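Open question from group meeting: does this chain pack into something compact, or does most of it stay loose? Before anyone orders reagents, we agreed to write out a predicted structure and look at it together. Recording both the input and the output here so the notebook holds the full record.
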Amino acid sequence: MADVLVLDTAALIGWPLQRLAGGLVVAAQEEELQRISPDRGAILDSLGVVFSEPSAESLEQAGAAAKETGDMAGLSNIDLALLALSLERSATLVTDDYRMQNIAAALGIEWNPIAAVGIVENWRWALKCVGCGATQSPPEQPSRRRGEHGNCPNCGTELRLRRVR
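Structure tokens returned:
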């Protein structure tokens, strides 16, 4: 197991405070934490976490893996940055997010769950129209909002992520 941990926001919320010391986080998590858990957000600086940002090259590698697995549509910019930071630092990613675990496994990044069991196999995803059934290309960028993947260019019906078998 890697000595360095990259902490997903769920770890910042759910883990005991003493376990957070020395963990790597990205700056955007501070604002997210303030919104989700104001009490934790207010003391984030004093917890001993290390703020770090991934390089553009690592972001590109993480993004390519997310596109390859089809998980890009379910990621936020923070998720992508945490994956890139884990890759760059050869760090263990601490997350309960199955999409992040799936991409981490595809990249050869070690990951540990926070409270959930974690993934048991890697999946691939595709955007599929719930109306006409057409499959669309995966998005190039992370989603602004989870679960919103746009509408089908053929019929205008909502697109959803479906597992590719």
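Observations to bring back to the group:
DSSP finds seven helices and eight strands in the chain.
The CA atoms of residues 125 and 164 lie 5 Å apart.
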